[in-house]
């Protein structure tokens, strides 16, 4: 059986990412803490918000994690999902996968510097006037960290992860002490009174706060014992993310904070209500740490894909060049940071809608790839296999497709402005075919020149 080799020219003695650091990187790639989940209470109310939070990971994240774990167990290679789709569906669909992923990650990355400034303004409101320089400073600082390699990013993620989690642990503990256990009692979980569009936007909010499991595969060749490490680290990260989200949402519900106050002022306002100004400061600092950690971790994953595509002559060959000192795709990292630098003026929820719409399309190609490889290569060794046959996999993947379509319809039928970014995202999906035709033409011209 033919296996794809790891796409790296780094020296064989390079340091590898260990399981504990991998948990931290995965945590930041898919979550970074509850920051950004503040609008959920307004969309779903007390009963509906918790129901959306519990059901969305069941429909969206668990099928994704299972697919990623099996595909990664087959091919723990640099480039991750791009290489999987190329092997299963061919070069054209691999280009679509890489193109859509590149687009949605630019959108995703643009969110975090903006969030950083919002939480920094908790300390100095005047910083809002310096939004652009601060965002650019964050973008290029994280780009420099990524050029140093995966291990520094992993170490930074461990430190930042601690800074994110401790304030929420304190929030939950003080909530139990001041509000009492009765405030955390489960109210009836129901979407009664929640409009279709509001439920859809609530799903978008949770989906954005728990996406990116496949992004963690793009540096699998830089992970110690990747097949085993990913199964353990991904499971720990999922449980940790869900527990933090549920505890935070239940604290917000029990505190009686207004949905508008939470949406407009964020979790620092909840911290002040529950534990005083010091806790509000800790949560604001945690929000800044979360933004930095998310940006660094997501940039780490996406910078590997243009490099892999450039190796296949789908993007300019210069993007495949590795830093001679650090063995990282430095040019790819710089290009990604440059594109994100021009996208930081968009609004948060617009970016979320575009992000999920693009990401879902790329994710579905990975689902199809797993089914195809199960049929075509049933005997290929896998250290992890989803305990379902081909029919069971198809049924399983109906769940994320269903919630994706539900959220998209909610945005398209929104009476506000959510339909505009949804339409824009659909246009961006179509752009993959236009770009592919351009690549085909250029490759044809190159072959003609080689023949001459």
Automatic annotation (TrEMBL):
The chain crosses the membrane at residues 20-37, 49-69, 90-115, 127-151, 158-177, 189-209, 230-252, 272-305, 326-346, 352-374, 386-407, 419-439. It is a multi-pass membrane protein. Pfam families: AA_permease_2. The keyword Transit peptide does not apply. Signal peptide: none annotated. GO terms for molecular function: transmembrane transporter activity. It is found in: Cell membrane. It comes from the Bacteria. One of its GO terms (cellular component) is plasma membrane. Gene3D superfamilies: Amino acid/polyamine transporter I. Keywords: Cell membrane, Membrane, Transmembrane, Transmembrane helix, Transport. This is Amino acid/polyamine/organocation transporter (APC superfamily). It comes from Dinghuibacter silviterrae.
